[in-house]
Please model this.
Amino acid sequence: MQAMFDALFEPSAFSPHGFCLLWDPGLIWLHALSDAVIGLCYFSIPLALLHFARRRSDLEFRWILWLFALFILACGSTHFMAVATLWVPLYWIDGIVKLITALASIATAILLWPLLPRLLALPSPSALRLVNDQLSLQMEEREGNLAILQEHEALLRQSQKMEAVGQLTGGIAHDFNNMLQAIGGSLEMMERRIGQGRSSEAEQFVDAARKTVERAAALTHRLLAFARRQPLQPRSVDPDELIAGMEELIRRTMGPGVTIELRMNDGVWTVLCDPNQLENVLLNLTINARDAMPDGGRLTIATNDVTLSEADVVGQEGARPGAYVEISVIDTGTGMDATTKARAFEPFFTTKPIGQGTGLGLSQLYGFVRQSGGIVRLDSAPGQGTTVRLYLPRHADADEPETKAAGSGQGAASQSGAGEAVLLVEDEANVRMVAAEALRDFGYRVLEAADGPAALHVLHSAVRVDLMVTDVGLPGGLNGRQVADAARERRPVLPVLFITGYAGPALEGQLAPGMEVIGKPFALDVLAARVRAMLEAIPVNEARPATIPLPPHG
Model:
C-alpha cells in the first residue's frame, strides 16, 4: 500500500509532459493556458447547473442536472491535471481523475438514454403557445358563458322581483278594492237615505264606512311595518312587564284548549322599541299559534338576556354583535314545511283559507323587529311546532322602563280646547279642511297653511301659535320635520304634532321633546285628544313669546 502511494507522489521515475514538447516555451504555454481556460469554464458550468437545480425544485428531472454537473466537473479536473503534468509527472493522479471522469460519463450515458423519450415528450415552445392559445379561447368562452349566466341570473332575479311585486300589488289591490267598495257603497247609501228623509237609517252605513277605514289603516300600517318605514315611537320597555301585562289578553285569545306557559327571565335588561307595536307583534304570533293548534296544545312565551357574537349575526344586515333580549314564542302546532318557512315573511303570503288571514302578520313582525335594530329567527318543521325568536338590542341607557303603550288613556283624555291657536300645515286640501273644521268644533282657533314656506311665514310673524300640527311630506321644498326645526329656532317650546301617512327618512331617529307623531288615517277625536294632551304637557312656567292674537275665524 505504501509503495502505491509512493508511486503516486514520486514522479522521479517519469518525465514531465513538457519534455515531450521539447520544452518549447511557446508550445508549453499554449497548452497550459488552453487547458486552464477550458478547466475554468468546465468548473463554471456545474456551478450554474447546481444553482439552477436548487432554485427550480419543481423540476421533475432535477437529478439529471446534478449528474451532468458531476460529469462536467470531472472533465474540468482532467484539464487542470494536464496543466500540472507539463512540469510535474503526476500521471497516476492524472489517471485516477480520468477514471472518475470515465465513470461519471458512463453513468450519465446509461441514465440519459432511457430518459431521452420523456425529455423529447416535453412540449416545445410552439406547442406551449398552441396550448396557451387554446386556454385563452377556453377562458374567453367561459367568460362569455359567465356573462350569459349572470344575465340569466339578473333576469331570474327580476322575474322573482316582479312576482313578489305582483303578489304584493295584487294583494293590496284586492283588499283596497274591497274596502273602497265598502266605503263608496256606504257613502252612496247614506246619500240615498238622507235624500229619502230616512237619516236615522244612515247610521249603520256610517259605522260600516268607519270600520272599513280602520281596516285600511291597519293594512297600510302593516305594509309600512314590512317595509320598515312605519313611524315608531320608541321608549324604554321591560319585555317581562309588557308580556305579563298581556297575559289575560293572551289567555282569552288562545281559548281553553291551549295551555299557556310564561317563562319570564326576570332579567334587568330593557329594550328600546315601540311598545304598541311589540304588543301587536306578540298578539299576532299568539293568534298564529292558536290557528296552528286547532285541537289544542301548548303555547310558551319566554324571555332571556343573551349576548350574540359576530358569528351569530352573520347575514343579518345592520345587526351588530352585543347584548340582546330574546323573546321566544313556541307552539306545539302543525309546523311548517321548508317551502312555507322560506316564504313565511313575504307580504300577503298565507296558508290560511281565503278570508281567514291577510298574510301580513309575520311580514309586519319582521319589518318592526328589523326597524328596531333586532333579528328574527324562525324554526319549524311539520308536526314539530314552530318557534319564533325575536332579538331586540338591549337599551343600556335606560333608567326606568316605560312599558305603558303609547296610545293608552288617550280615548279618555279631554278633547276640548280653550281657544288655543293651532297652526295646521297640510297640503291635501280635503284633509286640511276636515281636520281644521274638527279642531274648530273642539274649541281651537285654527290657522291653515298648505306648504312649508307658508307655515314659516306665519311662524316668523308675531301671530300667536300655541301648537303646530303638520304633515311630514309637504311641497315647496321643505318637509314637516324641517318646518318644525325652523319653528323651534324662533319658538323653542312650541309643541309639534306630526301627522303622516308615510314619513320616510324625515322622522328617522329620536324626536325632540314636545314632538309627537300620529299616523294617518286617524280618528278626529284622537287628533283632538292628542292636541289637548300636548298643550297640557307644556310646563306652566314656560312663557310663550308675546304674539298677536288670531282674528276670529270667518
About this structure: Residues 276 and 407 are 8 Å apart (CA to CA). The chain has four domains: 2-120, 129-226, 235-393, 421-536. Residues 421-536 form a domain with the Rossmann fold fold (CATH 3.40.50.2300). The longest strand covers residues 297-308.
